[in-house]
Fold each of these.
Amino acid sequence: MTWPTQGQPLIRFTFGRFDEVGYYNNQKNFRCEVTAENLWNKPIHAAAFTVYFYDKQKTRNGEGYLSVSDLPVNGRAKFEFNVTTSGRPEDFQLVPKNVPDEFAQFLPKREIPKIAITVNSVPQGAALKVDGEDEGTTPKIVKFTPGKHLILFTLEGYATGNYPFEVKPDEAPGGSITLELGSAMHDTVELRDGSVLTGDVEALSATDLEIRIGGTIQKLNRNSVKRILLIERMPAAQAQ
């Protein structure tokens, strides 16, 4: 058996005959001679592998441990290998346990586990983005990878909410976070070309609309306006 099983092989293990040497409490003990060969272009100073054993039904019924050290280029080493199983092993799999850093590029890619968390807003129904990606509307179960994230909530009539959120690697799934959206501070004018203006509507007629944006009045043709969302303002006498 060579490892890795795909691409350039780096090390080969040749297993001899498995001889049963004992039986106790429904567990069988086997022994065989193993030859390790260095197929790499560098010496292998230390490497360890777990060997998983399977029966005819492909059910794992035992495991053993292999290790080599100070194996020169093209070098070989023979040693005795022992394993205890719950039945006779019919097949086995070699899995790296502790290998040189140079072997890292040959290790299988590990999938980063995702953690399901319910994301909600008050009021509900806000459009939800996580790290710039659309996730639907709240409430929504979102699967997060461990690390830092930025959650964006938008809902007509309310100020946009940004929520920095960090997921710990040991975070338990099933948690929830909720953001209460604040009221909008300015009027919103949506144009027919899809653009949106935020400011204070100063005047509105059948033909024109005037909106103050950053202290400057802009005059728009009323026909270019698709929708206007006005916030409630206190009368000047009350505001003082």
Amino acid sequence: MLTWGDSPMASKAPPDWGSKILHGRITVGNTELIGGDVFPNTYEQPKGFAVLLNVDDAVGAERIFQALAENGKIQMPMQKTFWAERYGGVVDQFGVPWEINCENPS
């Protein structure tokens, strides 16, 4: 993770943005999700989508779901469905909607 304050672009960021994330990477298995905070004048509340993460094992799916739910809001608790061993929906503490899916049992 790289903050705005620790980057070569620190002088271009608003004064109170030193601890905001310029570049962050989450690695799940062989998949990387990369993102960062945007300037306040370009930020829009996430809507009309969810990040769908398909996980190969039920234990991993539960762990990821619980981590995303911390300080967030569970939309659909993790559960068995007709298509998946484990599936759940959550909006994380930053307002990003996630769907965690594990189609096959571990």
Amino acid sequence: MTTLHEPSPGRARRERLSLTAEGTSAATFGTTDWGLVLGASAIWGASFLFIAEGLETLAPGLVTVLRIAFGWLVLTTVRRARTTRVDRDDWPRLVVVSIVWFAIPMTIFPIAEQWISSSITGMLNGALPIFSTGLAALLLHRLPGRYQLAGIAVGFAGIVLISLPSWQGGARTALGAVLVLVAMMSYAFAGNLMVPLQHRYGALAVIWRAQLVGMVLTAPYGIVGVTESTLAWRPVGAVFLLGTLGTGVAFVLAGTLFGRVGASRGSIIAYLIPVVALALGVLLRDEHVEAIAVAGLSLAIVGAWLTSRAGR
């Protein structure tokens, strides 16, 4: 019998030759799917608050390497992450995943949050489904379903409204917004690459190894940041939560979801992240958010619902 972690030889060969793959289900999201979405969204929505808290005394590079290290350590406690064997032929893809899912975006976010608020950073994550679905369509040579296309259109309108205040806030503020969108493109590529790997090995094994590679790649930047940082309980504690929950637990939830529903529909996680990021930024850091950005957030939520509908 074929399982999620043991696909048929024919399917494994096809997926090894392709850059992405379909999810195992095209049905409307069920209880498990929504549980994965809400779990990852809640954790990742809070991650931008944790980054902002960490940047109070820690340099951006140190925040980056510590969060990956803490995430890797928490997954190390799970035996299956360590013992699942990954074929040598799949390591090049895994290394690319580590670069585009960990090294690049996790370097970008602390830099961007020096110039834009955690609320806006989180809200701009709603761009992910647009990039992810478009990239999947190119790689799989097929158009998304009509509901998914409508979701992309509505979500895109929401992202435009969310980002408008950033473009009016000066060069550095605009640069911060651009960097976040670059990180979203990187995440979109990673999500598509992740699907075939998740089908063969499960999310735990792939993410644990990708984090290890990402930690090595970002270590020089983190070491430089040590001299520019001051250790304090609150920032270090925030980065600890950022790593164990945001880089550990949430990535496993997201990787599992991508394997089940595909990278396009799985990326609706990013439409719900802004809700959490907005609430925490306003309530805990007294961040100001323009009304037009809140209106954009409403459109992004509608786009998430449309994207989750059944069909390809």
